[in-house]
């Protein structure tokens, strides 16, 4: 059967890491103790001069291509998830295509689903590969959320960071019990826009705007929606939570990760956690965490890995893959 198989991963972070204590020293009315206790975050990376969503995405993609042993010229599909593109247009994916030296003429576009962006991008790329629109894809999540933050709002500015993660996805004819994306589900509900949004945009204020969030309400929706979509994907694939080797969740808050794992009866040691080092990097968080756990050898070939995320919109989704 034709499946989309993950054959490589990569990630990139801005050079500068900023600790909780540094944020407090720089004038944010907060403390390391509050941030660590409420969120599990200890530091985040913040993009500096010369670093952008496109540069981070390109670095992550280059490393993913190396690990897959695929030359950039073989890539005929790039789906890039971001809510912080370098420019309103063109899509950041087209810049990455050019910067990497991919063959011109392939498909390249961005998807905007905020923190669920990587799940939306992965599911879209999977569908395009399985229907013959491409053969080798890069699926990228890349963000520079630091440029959307209101540094006067301590309820949001401490939570986010910048970074990028990428996977190489290849269409392959595999056996039923072979590797590939086995199931995925995506959802959206636009009724909750006011709980998590950016108060600007080209067609409204004409400015980029700043991120606004009602954190406790987002938290409640996240736990319910994530548990539900995880159950759907498990049922679609005909497996149970105990069969999973790893869960690579969106890294928003350690308490959301714990609550979701508890709701599903997942062993906490099977959940990959990087929120302490990266904070919430929106669309980049799932592929970043995935790359960390691939490179440190935790995730092995043949294992069952669940990805999940929830974000502004609201949007949410999950996908199950065998490596
Ligand atoms: N440092 C110190 N105090 C802070 C603070 C900070 N960075 N941010 C908020 N506070 C204060 C608040 O002002 C409030 O003070 P008050 O009681 O005097 O009014 C108090 O801490 C509690 O605030 P609250 O917002 O109720 O805290 P919380 O326990 O719900 O934690 C979040 C806040 C944002 C960490 C939490 O709600 C959360 O993680 N939500 C999910 C957000 C998320 O992950 N969104 C992205 C999804 S993609």
Structural class: alpha/beta
- Ligand catalogue: coenzyme A
User: What is the strand tally?
Assistant: 13
**Are there runs of 5+ residues with pLDDT below 50, and where?**
none
Tally of separate domains? 2
Structure description:
There is one protein chain. The protein is of the alpha/beta class and about 325 residues long. It folds into two domains: about 1-175, Peroxisomal Thiolase, Chain A, domain 1 (3-Layer(aba) Sandwich); about 180-320, Peroxisomal Thiolase, Chain A, domain 1. The protein is built from ten helices and 13 strands. The strands form four sheets. Strands 1-7-6-4-5 form a five-stranded mixed β-sheet, with helices on both faces. Helix 4 links the parallel strand 4 and strand 5 (about 105-110). Helix 3 packs across helix 4 (about 90-100) and helix 7 packs parallel to helix 8 (about 255-265). The radius of gyration is 18 Å and the shape is globular. The model has no long low-confidence stretch (mean pLDDT about 95). It binds coenzyme A. Coenzyme A binds near residues 34 and 35.
Summarize the structure in short.
It is built from ten helices and 13 strands. By secondary structure, the protein is an alpha/beta fold. It folds into two domains: 2-173, Peroxisomal Thiolase, Chain A, domain 1; 180-322, Peroxisomal Thiolase, Chain A, domain 1, CATH 3.40.47.10.
Notable features of this structure?
2 domains; 323 residues; binds coenzyme A; alpha/beta; globular
